[in-house]
Amino acid sequence: MEIIVLASGSPRRKELLAKTGLKFSVVVSGGEEKAETSDPAETVEKLSLDKASEVADLLQAEKEPQLIIGADTVVACDGEILGKPSDREDAFRMLWKLQGQTHQVYTGVTLLLKKKHTWQAHTFSEKTDVQFYPVSREELLAYIETGEPMDKAGSYGIQGGFGIYVKGICGDYNNVVGLPVGRLVYELKKLGIDIRGIKK
Ligand SMILES: Cc1cn([C@H]2C[C@H](O)[C@@H](COP(=O)(O)OP(=O)(O)OP(=O)(O)O)O2)c(=O)[nH]c1=O
Question: Which intervals of the chain form a coiled coil (predicted)?
Answer without folding.
Answer: none
